[in-house]
Every structure is written in structure tokens, then in C-alpha cells.
Amino acid sequence: MSGATATDSTGGSALTPPPGAETPVRHPDAPEPGTPLGSHYEQCFGCGEAQSHGLHLEARAGEGVGVTAEFTVRPAHQGAPGLAHGGVLVSALDETLGSVQWLLRTIAVTGRLETEFVRPVPVGTTLHLRAHCTGVSGRKIYSSAEGRIGSPDGPVAVRARAVFVEVQLEHFTKNGRPEEIKAALDNPDQHKVVRAFEVNP
Ligand SMILES: CCCCCCCC/C=C\CCCCCCCC(=O)SCCNC(=O)CCNC(=O)[C@H](O)C(C)(C)COP(=O)(O)OP(=O)(O)OC[C@H]1O[C@@H](n2cnc3c(N)ncnc32)[C@H](O)[C@@H]1OP(=O)(O)O
Predict the structure, then answer these.
(1) Complex ipTM over 0.85
(2) CB burial string 36-75: b at 16+ within 10 A, e below
(3) Is the CB of 182 under 6 A from ligand 1?
(4) Is the CB of 142 inside a 6 Å radius of any atom of ligand 1?
(5) Is the pTM of this model over 0.90?
């Protein structure tokens, strides 16, 4: 197997766009670079402003099909004493990579996500994240991300690559728990988000 490219059940290279993948195109109505993207769902663990247990990650539109985000590691995020839990860092990367959909105006969920932990991230650190789309192939959206310590030019602490798979709104209405689905559909702000993704609720 030496030198072979890792493959998966999809038959292709897992995390890099396959030959013939389309170059991602920023949607003409995507928010201007620097615009805060807000939350796609107020109870989201990654970005929800009403989620008291969440990461409260704040993402902004970047250049091209990219985003930037900040996440500050709090004591509740520890794995080892004084250091961020790896799974929490993966969540922050997942959320940042997911935010790229705002620029494509597509709803997609994480299919695969690979993370490289380059350095430990102490509690109190603000992680400066950026992510961009690297290719689109059918319903598969390929993207990559990195997180830097303390500033956008700080040392790299984490890197990730992912494949998101485009879904319809029914993905959530059919699979989610009825009480949260109802509350979300009753919330006018949620409808605005869905419209921003060009999906009919
Ligand atoms: C009520 C109101 C709600 C409002 C909400 C609206 C706003 C929301 C906005 C944005 C939401 C984003 C939320 C962000 C949160 C952060 C991101 C997360 O953490 S998401 C959670 C973790 N992920 C999952 O829970 C996925 C669980 N998995 C699945 O549901 C399925 O497996 C899914 C959808 C990923 C694929 O299932 P299939 O049946 O649709 O897929 P098939 O038709 O077989 O494949 C389509 C293509 O995708 C590839 N594919 C399928 N699964 C793949 C995978 N796991 N990895 C890579 N490729 C995969 C296949 O090979 C195929 O490719 P070929 O067309 O043949 O080239």
C-alpha cells in the first residue's frame, strides 16, 4: 500500500477534489467580505448565540469562497489541565468549514473531516480560523481549514480537510427531534436563514 492514495467507500480520494471537480464559485448574493455571518441556528453548539454550552464561534465572510472565524477556548473546553480538548477543536473546525456554505448558498452536512493537531491550545487562547472551499463535485463540497493561535498570523495549531454533502431541508425536518424542528420552523429568524440558503422551508 505504500504510496497509495487513501480511498473510501465512495471509491475516490477521500478529502481532495476528484479530477473534473468544479472550481467553487462565490454566489453573486453572498455577503461582502468582512460581513458577520451570524448563526445558522440559535441552538447550534458551534455558533448558536442562545446555546449556553456552545462554542460561540463567530464567522465572517472572507474573500472568494472562504470564511474567517474566531473561537476563544474557555475552561469548560479543557481536555488536559489548561489545554483545549481535541474534540472541541474539531467542533470549531467543523463549524468554520460548515460556514463556507454561506458563500455557496448551499445546505450541506459534514460527511468526512480529518484534523491535524499541530500544537496544544491553552485555555484563554483565541483561535483565529479560516476555511475555504477547494472544489465541488456533484453534491460533494471539498474544503480545508486552519486555526492559528492568538492572531491571524499566529502559529498554526490545527489544520483540517473535509467533505460536506449537499442535502435538502428534509434532511433536518425528517431526522431531527420534533420539538426542536417545530420551534425552529416557528422562528421567523430561522426562515430568514433558510432563505439565505435559497431553500424553501
Ligand atoms: C427545521 C429547520 C432547519 C433549518 C436548518 C437550515 C439551515 C442549516 C444550514 C446549514 C446546516 C449545516 C449544519 C452545520 C453544522 C456543522 C456541520 C455538521 O456537523 S453536520 C452534522 C454531522 N454530519 C451528519 O450528521 C451527516 C450524517 N450523514 C448523512 O446524513 C448522510 O450520510 C449524508 C447526507 C452525508 C449522505 O447521505 P446520502 O444518502 O444523501 O448520500 P448519497 O446519495 O449516498 O451520496 C451522495 C454523494 O456523496 C458521497 N458521500 C456520501 N456520504 C459521504 C461521506 N460520508 N463522505 C464523503 N462522501 C460521501 C457519495 O459517494 C455520493 O457521491 P457521488 O455523487 O457518487 O460522487
Answers:
(1) yes
(2) ebbbbbbbbbbbbeebeebbbbbbbbbeebbbbbbbebee
(3) no
(4) no
(5) yes
